[in-house]
């Protein structure tokens, strides 16, 4: 039999064997009781169409016994007795009301027993080994509602904080129908990240799987050729070599142009303008997107996609998720059109990310005309929200901490003063010399915690820290827990870049993982740190700025900015 359909792991398969037993093609008048029909049925037809006791290795072990009981019963019945079925007289009798009550109560009792059983089963999953403490919440929804209640500050989300206090650093829960083990423990997180591809693989919730086609041969969540390629092409265009060789002056130019533009306006909502800036620049580097001359404002489309992305993955007309999937399709279509244009007209080549993917089509079979747009879409997704949120938060921290701005200004004015030509651009050496700026960037990344955690799916049962992680369960590694741990970082939500002076390398590597870890560590980490530092350099040397309004943030659990952050920029004389 050919493969035809895919049966996904974990799905239930219901084999309706009665369908063949009541098939009129094989058993004429199938619901007529006619034992004589068996005289004419051959062995092959019977074995194909008659499976009252199931089949295969799980065939009923009581089949022979049942047949013997039935036959003995018939034997005794017909040799020793005659029998008649009595016709019931009259129509249905009225059921007295006390009887109705009794039946009603019995039904209610059955329903209660059924649901109690269901809740008990849900809350006490049967596994071999010991699960961490914690609650699985209600069947299907689990503890999703508690998880999405916004936390009103940048501190660790209350969902995690409360459970850590109640159950300890490792606990179980259930979110959007998935059983999850949450770890805020450094050693467990490290162990899991080191076993990517053997014990776990990347898995974000079901909406991500649908969104990024995390299934089939080209799924990037599995460790293998496709994942390796994703990393190498990203590092090729956004890694240290590329930053040094060509990207640094382009980043500087782009930041100069945008800041100069914002300074000509009244107060601007930095979340909004930074999102447009980050998107347009990254999209330009990936597929040559020219925002100024493009009819479509892609950054707006992308923001819309992201806003409705965090919703229930119900892909039916009318839902936000459906709208989001449609917008995603349009975006993928536009990316595919760009790819096709380049394929048909080599004069449009620019030596960018897309051109490399086109060249690699000759050697990498998985690089198809459908996969390349998905790859570009994924990189934009990985870079856009994280970068723009981090840069926006920088303004919150700086506007609340003028002493930090003063010290930054001292560092950057000293860099400019040292130059032979004060108008020359920023160099890699200058970037590497920015000691205080690195501390500001670290402190921003430490408190920001853009992803609430890293998600993985267990590929098999395994033991860690005395607990069992069952195959198929999701593991959520809450790296923010160590970054906001008051034992390591005193007053953890206070923005204090100076604290980095006193932290040693071991403490830092154990407690600070804004870009994840292991084989999946962020491929855009160096690029992001360079953009943040260059941004600070241009900002403090050329502009002064004041917060006019806004600045409230919440974790839902990803960061949102309520009313935005409205900043007035002024060029310095
Ligand atoms: C402040 C900005 C950023 C932060 C905080 C951030 C954070 C992260 C984290 C935590 C991961 C690991 C996810 C996991 O293990 O599940 C990751 C992966 C990744 N990031 Fe970033 N990121 C940022 C910017 C960027 C940018 C600008 C790019 C692209 C230019 C990028 C490209 C990627 C890619 C391709 C991966 C997947 C790596 C892999 O699977 O091997 N990121 N990022």
TrEMBL record:
Binding-site residues for heme, renumbered to this chain: 522
Localization per record: Membrane
Molecular function GO labels: heme binding; iron ion binding; monooxygenase activity; oxidoreductase activity, acting on paired donors, with incorporation or reduction of molecular oxygen
GO CC terms: membrane
InterPro entries in the cross-refs: Cyt_P450, Cyt_P450_CS, Cyt_P450_E_grp-IV, Cyt_P450_sf
Co-factor requirement: heme
GO biological process: brassinosteroid biosynthetic process; brassinosteroid homeostasis; sterol metabolic process
Nucleus recorded as keyword: no
Membrane-spanning segments: 100-120
Record CDD domains: CYP90-like
Signal peptide residue numbers: none
Keywords associated with the record: Heme, Iron, Membrane, Metal-binding, Monooxygenase, Oxidoreductase, Transmembrane, Transmembrane helix
Membrane topology: Single-pass membrane protein
Main location (coarse class): membrane
UniProt keyword Zinc-finger present: no
Protein name: Cytochrome P450
């Amino acid at each position: 039999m050919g493969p035809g359909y895919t049966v996904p792991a974990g799905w239930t398969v219901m084999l309706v064997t009665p369908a063949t037993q009541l098939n009129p093609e094989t058993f004429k008048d199938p619901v007529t009781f006619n034992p004589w029909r068996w005289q004419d049925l051959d062995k092959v037809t019977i074995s194909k169409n008659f499976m009252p006791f199931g089949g295969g290795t799980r065939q009923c072990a009581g089949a022979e016994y049942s047949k013997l009981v039935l036959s003995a019963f018939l034997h005794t019945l017909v040799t020793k007795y005659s029998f008649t079925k009595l016709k019931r007289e009259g129509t249905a009798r009225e059921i007295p009301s006390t009887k109705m009550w009794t039946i009603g109560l019995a039904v209610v009792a059955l329903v209660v027993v059924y649901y109690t059983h269901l809740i008990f089963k849900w809350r006490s999953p049967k596994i071999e080994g010991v699960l961490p403490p914690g609650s699985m919440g209600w069947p299907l929804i689990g503890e999703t509602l508690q998880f999405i209640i916004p936390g009103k500050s940048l501190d660790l989300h209350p969902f995690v904080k409360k459970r850590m206090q109640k159950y300890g650093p490792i606990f179980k829960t259930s979110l959007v129908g998935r059983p999850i083990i949450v770890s805020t423990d450094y050693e467990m997180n490290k162990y899991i990240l080191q076993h990517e591809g053997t014990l776990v693989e990347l898995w974000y919730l079901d909406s991500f799987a649908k969104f990024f086609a995390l299934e089939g041969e080209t799924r990037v969540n599995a460790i293998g050729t496709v994942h390796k390629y994703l990393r190498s092409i990203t590092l090729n265009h956004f890694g240290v070599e590329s930053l040094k060789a060509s990207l640094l002056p382009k980043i500087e130019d782009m930041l100069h142009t945008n800041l100069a533009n914002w300074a000509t306006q009244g107060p601007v909502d930095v979340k909004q303008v930074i999102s447009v800036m980050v998107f347009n620049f990254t999209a330009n580097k990936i597929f040559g997107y020219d925002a100024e001359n493009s009819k479509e404002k892609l950054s707006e489309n992308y923001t819309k996609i992201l806003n409705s992305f965090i919703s229930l993955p119900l892909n039916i007309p009318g839902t936000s998720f459906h709208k989001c999937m449609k917008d995603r399709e349009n975006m993928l279509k536009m990316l595919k059109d760009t790819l096709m244009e380049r394929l048909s007209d080599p004069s449009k080549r620019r030596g960018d990310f897309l051109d490399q993917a086109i060249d690699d089509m000759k050697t990498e079979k998985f690089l198809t005309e459908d996969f390349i747009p998905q790859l570009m879409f994924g990189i934009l997704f990985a870079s856009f929200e994280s970068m723009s949120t981090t840069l926006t938060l920088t303004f919150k921290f700086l506007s609340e901490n003028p002493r930090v701005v003063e010290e930054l200004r001292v560092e950057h004015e000293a860099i400019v003063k040292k130059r032979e030509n004060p108008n020359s651009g920023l160099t890699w050496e200058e970037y590497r010399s920015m000691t205080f700026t690195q501390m500001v960037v670290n402190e921003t990344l430490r408190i920001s915690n853009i992803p609430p955690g890293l998600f993985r799916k267990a590929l098999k049962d395994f033991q860690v820290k005395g607990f069992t992680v069952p195959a198929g369960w999701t593991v959520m590694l809450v790296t923010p827990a160590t970054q906001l741990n008051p034992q390591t970082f005193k007053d953890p939500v206070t923005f204090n870049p100076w604290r980095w002076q006193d932290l040693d390398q071991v403490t830092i590597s154990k407690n600070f993982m804004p870009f994840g870890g292991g084989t999946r560590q962020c491929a855009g980490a160096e690029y992001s740190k360079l953009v943040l530092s260059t941004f600070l350099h241009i900002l403090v040397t050329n502009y002064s700025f004041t917060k006019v309004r806004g600045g409230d943030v919440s974790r839902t659990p990803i960061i949102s900015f309520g009313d935005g952050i409205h900043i007035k920029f002024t060029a310095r004389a």
